[in-house]
Design goal:
- The chain is α+β, with helices and mostly antiparallel strands.
- It contains 12 helices and 23 strands.
- Helix 1 runs parallel beside helix 6 and helix 7 runs parallel beside helix 11.
- It is globular.
- The structure holds shikimate-3-phosphate.
- Shikimate-3-phosphate (S3P) binds next to helix 5.
- Shikimate-3-phosphate binds next to helix 5.
């Protein structure tokens, strides 16, 4: 049984210094998937050695790929080629990782073997019809539970998938990526149209491996013609992990933090735009390109934030950062309104409800709405928060402690290890007084 971890946060600290936060989770997943399908050996540096990306790594080992973990984020993948995966001998267990399950369902739909995808309690409640429905239009055979959830039983349809034109009903990089991966095994062209731009790491990395994805406006198209050629990938720091310190250094007086080598792909930088609209002082320094992805150092100093209406077009570009952005809003003067973010209800937890409950516990006046939240800035008090096993909620409330008037205790924090195992070490090094307590 996994250990229960509780965080205790001493209030009123400040953040100072430099940090390089963990590697990007989305890119780490994709480096394993595409490196496995490539011809040749792919060396990855900056790989995120956290539970989610390691679940993907293990799944590919279970399908016969030799993957060496050399420590310190260095991973070597001995690619087996597009048609070289082997049938796993047991269900592929994907832990808490929605990205692993949704992307793998597309990749495995057109293989010459059958397999079963399973996950933990949270992943087993998350909607999978958003991928299985368009995949079945392509000829895939995937069985879900009657509720449309995992486990997914995939009957491989090698040579039988066909391309479709799919207009996505929601802005989701996971759905887009799933269908692109299925399209690599389909007859004809697969074209996906997205209602708003979402992260494009799959498209960029496929192109890096020499596999052509054409991108025009809000459409991405792929065919089965092509193969992947191994190349070396340097994964930048995850802006979704950096976001905790962008907010923390903004809200904690007398803070000054430099976050090194952060990925600033324009499909991920909504958090910087939203914080700047709120009055945050964030400088983008030393901008450069690493392996087809833009990277920079981010310098952030304290500021008095103000409440805003969050522009809806920024929502998909900051989709994972709302838990900590709600903390920024709670510390701001005036009202912050978020709309158009119903996707937050189907993340690792219902992030609208769980954050609204937590903010109310610490004395903030909030109103949860079906697609967002209205937050009145105020003074964060102390209290005991239930993170519902959601890593980003646990870390968001740890950051809230920086400007709280009393200590905050956060329950059910073990899943911080799914995305950011060094969170405690980096946060304490920068100045947050965080102690954790483990029990079996
Ligand atoms: C991800 C896409 C997003 C994001 C998730 C990672 C990806 O999910 O929330 O953490 O790597 O493609 P959706 O596509 O469901 O929005």
């Amino acid at each position: 049984m996994t250990k229960k971890i509780t965080f205790h946060i001493q209030h009123g600290c400040q953040l100072n210094g430099q940090a390089r936060v963990a590697g990007d989770k989305s890119m780490s997943h994709r480096s394993i998937m595409l490196g496995s399908l490539a011809q040749g050996v792919t060396h990855v540096t900056g790989f995120l050695e956290a539970e989610d990306a390691l679940a993907t790594l293990q799944a590919f080992r279970d399908m016969g790929v030799i993957i060496e973990q050399r420590g310190n984020g260095c991973v070597t993948i001995h690619g087996v080629g597009k048609h070289g995966l082997k049938a796993p001998t047991k269900p592929l267990y994907l832990g808490n990782s929605g990205t692993s399950m949704r992307l793998l369902s597309g990749l495995l739909a057109g293989q010459h073997f059958d397999c079963i995808l399973t996950g933990d309690e949270s992943l087993s409640k998350r909607p999978m019809k958003r991928v299985t429905e368009p995949l079945s239009q392509m000829g895939a055979v995937i069985e879900t539970t009657p509720a449309g959830t995992a486990p997914l039983h995939i009957t491989g349809q090698a040579g039988k998938l066909h391309g479709i034109d799919y207009i996505m009903p929601m802005a989701s990089a996971q759905v887009k990526s799933c269908l692109l991966l299925a399209g690599m095994y389909a007859q004809g062209q697969t074209t996906i149209t997205e209602p708003a731009p979402t992260r494009d790491h799959t498209e960029r990395m496929l192109n890096g491996f020499g596999y052509h994805v054409s991108q025009q406006g809000n459409q991405a198209s792929i065919t089965a013609a092509g193969q992947l050629t191994a190349f070396d990938i340097d994964v930048p720091s995850d802006i979704s992990s950096a976001a905790f310190f962008l907010v923390g250094a903004s809200i904690a007086p007398h803070s000054d933090v430099l976050l090194k080598q952060v990925g600033i792909n324009p499909t991920r930088t909504g958090v910087i735009d939203i914080l700047r609209l709120m009055g945050a002082k964030i400088e983008i320094l030393n901008q450069r390109e690493v392996g087809g992805e833009p990277v920079a150092d981010l310098h952030v100093t304290s500021s008095q934030l103000k409440g805003i209406e969050i522009p809806e077009d920024l929502v998909p570009l900051a989709i994972d950062e709302f838990p900590v952005l709600f903390i920024a809003a709670a510390c701001a003067t005036g009202e912050t309104r978020l709309t158009g973010a119903e996707e937050l209800r189907v993340k690792e937890s219902d992030r609208i409800q769980v954050m609204a409950d937590g903010l109310q516990t610490v004395g903030i006046n909030v109103q949860a709405t079906p697609d967002g939240m209205i937050i009145q800035g105020g003074t964060i008090g102390g209290g005991i928060i239930d993170s519902h096993g959601d890593h980003r909620i646990a870390m968001a409330f740890a950051i809230a402690g920086l400007c709280a008037s009393a200590p905050i205790t956060i329950l059910d924090c073990a899943n911080v290890n799914t995305s950011f195992p060094e969170f405690k070490a980096i946060a304490t090094n920068l100045g947050l007084t965080l102690t954790s307590q483990e029990e079996a």
